C-alpha cells in the first residue's frame, strides 16, 4: 500500500485532512504581522537546528574528562563537515538566546503578559532560564581552560548555601569539587533533561497561545 493510499484510507475513517486544515489554517491578526512577532518562531527554529546538529555531534563527542577536549578537536578538524555542524550548533544557540530574550522583552513592553496570559508569561520565563542553562551547559562541554573556569564559577556557587550547600554540590557535581563526574552530569543535563523540559514547556506555551490567541496590547 502506497503512502498516499494509506493517508486516504485513514482520512476516510478519521477525517485527518479536515482536522489538520482547522488546526493549521487560522487567520493571523493584522497587528501580529510585524517582524517582532516572529521572534518566538525564530527561537523555535533555532532550537530545532540545535536538536538536529546536537544529535550529529553526540555521535562523536566523548563526555569524559580525559577525552572531551580531544573529541571536540576531532569533530572540528577530522570529521567530514564536523566544523560546519559544530558552527551551526554554536550559532543557532546564540540566535536562540537572542531571540528568546528579545521575544520576552517584546511581550513585556507590549503588556502581553497581562490577564489572562499570566500563566504563559510564567512558562515563557521558565523557557528563558532554560535557554540560558542550555548555553552554559553546552559551553562547559568543551572542557578546555576557559569552559572549566566558567564552570567553576557557576557550579561552585551553591557551596555558599547555608545547611544545604554540600548536599546541592553533591547532587549537581557528584562531589564537593569539579571532577569528571561533573562533566558527565552536565552532559546528561544538556542532551536529555533540558531538551525534555524544553519540549514540554514549548508544547504548553504553544497550546496556550493557540487557545488564547495573540495578544493585541500595544
Can you offer a commentary on this structure?
The protein has one domain (30-212): Cytochrome Bc1 Complex, Chain C, CATH 1.20.810. With 218 residues, it is mainly α. It is built from nine helices and no strands.
From the structure above, extract its key features:
9 helices; 71% helix; Cytochrome Bc1 Complex, Chain C; mainly alpha; 218 residues
Poorly predicted regions:
none
Q: What is the CATH first-level class name? A: Mainly Alpha
Structural domain count: 1
Q: Which radius of gyration do the C-alpha atoms yield?
A: 21 Å
Count of beta strands: 0
Return the average pLDDT rounded to an integer: 87
Largest sheet: none
What is the count of DSSP helices, taking H or I runs of 4+ residues? 9
- Known CATH architecture: Up-down Bundle
From the helix content, strand content and strand pairing, which structural class follows?
mainly alpha
Put the structure in a nutshell.
By secondary structure, the protein is an all-alpha fold.
Secondary structure blueprint with pairings:
Blueprint: H1 3-14, H2 16-24, H3 39-58, H4 68-77, H5 82-109, H6 118-140, H7 145-155, H8 165-173, H9 180-212
Amino acid at each position: 500500500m502506497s503512502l498516499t493510499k494509506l493517508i486516504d484510507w485513514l482520512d476516510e475513517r478519521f477525517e485527518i485532512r479536515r482536522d489538520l486544515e482547522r488546526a493549521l489554517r487560522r487567520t493571523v491578526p493584522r497587528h501580529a504581522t510585524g517582524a517582532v512577532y516572529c521572534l518566538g518562531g525564530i527561537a523555535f527554529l533555532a532550537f530545532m537546528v540545535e536538536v538536529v546538529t546536537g544529535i550529529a555531534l553526540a555521535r562523536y563527542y566523548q563526555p569524559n574528562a580525559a577525552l572531551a577536549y580531544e573529541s571536540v578537536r576531532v569533530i572540528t578538524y577530522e570529521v567530514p563537515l564536523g566544523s560546519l555542524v559544530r558552527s551551526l550548533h554554536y550559532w543557532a544557540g546564540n540566535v536562540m538566546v537572542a531571540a528568546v530574550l528579545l521575544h520576552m522583552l517584546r511581550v513585556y513592553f507590549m503588556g502581553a503578559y497581562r490577564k489572562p496570559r499570566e500563566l504563559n508569561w510564567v512558562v515563557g520565563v521558565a523557557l528563558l532560564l532554560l535557554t540560558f542553562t542550555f548555553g552554559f551547559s553546552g559551553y562547559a562541554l568543551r572542557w578546555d581552560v576557559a569552559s572549566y573556569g566558567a564552570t567553576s564559577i557557576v557550579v561552585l556557587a551553591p557551596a555558599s548555601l547555608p545547611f544545604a550547600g554540600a548536599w546541592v554540590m553533591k547532587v549537581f557535581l557528584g562531589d564537593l569539587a569539579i571532577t569528571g563526574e561533573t562533566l558527565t552530569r552536565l552532559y546528561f543535563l544538556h542532551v536529555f533533561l533540558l531538551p525534555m523540559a524544553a519540549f514540554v514547556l514549548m508544547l504548553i506555551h504553544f497550546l496556550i497561545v493557540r487557545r488564547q490567541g495573540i495578544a493585541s496590547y500595544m
